[in-house]
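Job type: complex structure
Entries:
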Amino acid sequence: MYRHVASSDPVYLRVVEDLRRQIRDGLLPPGASIPSRAQLTRKYGVGETAARHALRVLAAEGLIYGRVGSGHYVRDRPVLTPLHRWRHHDHHAPMAADLQNQNRRITCTWRVERAEAGRAIGQRLRVPESAPVVRTRYVIRDDNSPVQIAWSYEPMGPGDAAEGQILPTEGSGDRQGLVTRMAAQGIKITEIVETVRTRIPEPTEIDALDLVAGAHVLHVERTHLAGDRPVETSDIIVSGDLFSLVYSIPVPT
Amino acid sequence: MYRHVASSDPVYLRVVEDLRRQIRDGLLPPGASIPSRAQLTRKYGVGETAARHALRVLAAEGLIYGRVGSGHYVRDRPVLTPLHRWRHHDHHAPMAADLQNQNRRITCTWRVERAEAGRAIGQRLRVPESAPVVRTRYVIRDDNSPVQIAWSYEPMGPGDAAEGQILPTEGSGDRQGLVTRMAAQGIKITEIVETVRTRIPEPTEIDALDLVAGAHVLHVERTHLAGDRPVETSDIIVSGDLFSLVYSIPVPT
DNA sequence: AGGGCAAAGTTGGAGTACCAACCGACCCCG
DNA sequence: CGGGGTCGGTTGGTACTCCAACTTTGCCCT
């Protein structure tokens, strides 16, 4: 019989939180078996659905795992984040390919002044011309199609004085990285906030990056912080045919 | 009434795959509303559980989202992988700190011959002396405590001839990266398999990395592949007090 | 005593049913 | 014509049930 208790929190959360606490406090040490669905229903006075759900959530968090016909057990090595394996072609691979072909095509453009191709891509991607973009970097293939494009907003360093200067990447472009330059200025980068996700490309990106139909895009958003102040924010977009992502989420039951 | 069809695949997967296909093919464009539970049960001839489950899985994948009282809708920006935000102190931050203090302490050791400190840590972490470790790199703090240690198994490059040579990182150590060296040898790196996870450190790691109680470890396992052949496998371990991870999984219903 | 087999227990898939909170559209009344 | 209330549809939480596949345990028979 159904009887809904007028509670704000879902019932299954009670079970989840209690079990989680027991695991964290060591009452349920690694390897220990979790009470079965039937036992949980009796112990907590909840339905089987709630018990099952609680187990599922804990398994999704990586605290426990279930074995068919046997039971649920506490993970010996709790996975604090869900374990993800991504398997992708390296963004840098085209650089290697280009090196082989003696056909290196890497351009770094500094400040708002952009080199021809960099400016074109920036326009196609609707990066406003007036944006405080300090650096635009992109990597293109032999056939001139872009594979990676990145732009960043960062404070100027002493080396950035020459506006519009075009530098090859393997030169001072990379050696004079942000961290190095900031350190030279006495600014200590304390934190980096990074968001990685794949998504379906926007129309402008399909156009700008010459994406084939169905291709996905790897989007990396990164902000360097010095204290609370951001010193750099960069966007990196990599076209989807460069990588294939294999991810295993514990799919909810 | 329950009637189990002798099928290998779960029923809900049929619904998931059909809806996923429709979304991918544009039949259900971004913003479109997904059939409700009741409609799905009728359309696919499945129970409400299967319909609900299918919606949940699609929502977990980030293809759709549900609004209570309204319905499920196709995401305008489908998130193919669960969106993860990790917020961590950069592994390279200590380098900046050291640069400030004029106290750079980065060592690259080549081949099995290791420099004093590198060998000590390698021993403490139980990397066998006979292992084909080409490079051991570690970063230590001012107080000499290690914050990062990495070792890799990779084929020798022409520049690696001098065994036991110690090179500062910001020199040729980084410029002569694996990808570059492989390219010079005509080997093209086609794929990188990377596994990132946090875990509780092992006793040897607690010892070797001087971890405080409760600290976690960021473990990165990376293999570079040329075709099917691995050309490099590296392990990177970062002590846990360097980063704090903020993750948001779409917790299954 | 030891090996094999059956029974009991467990997970995971699936179905049905009900309720609360909520959204939206329609209709009615002022 | 506009505002408010009602009603149907929808999601999400919960309960109960059954079954298939599997593991584990313990008993029985050889």
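Summary: Chain B touches chain A through 56 residues (CB under 8 Å). Residues 2, 4, 36-38, 52, 55, 66-72, 253 of chain B lie near DNA strand D (CB under 10 Å from a C1').
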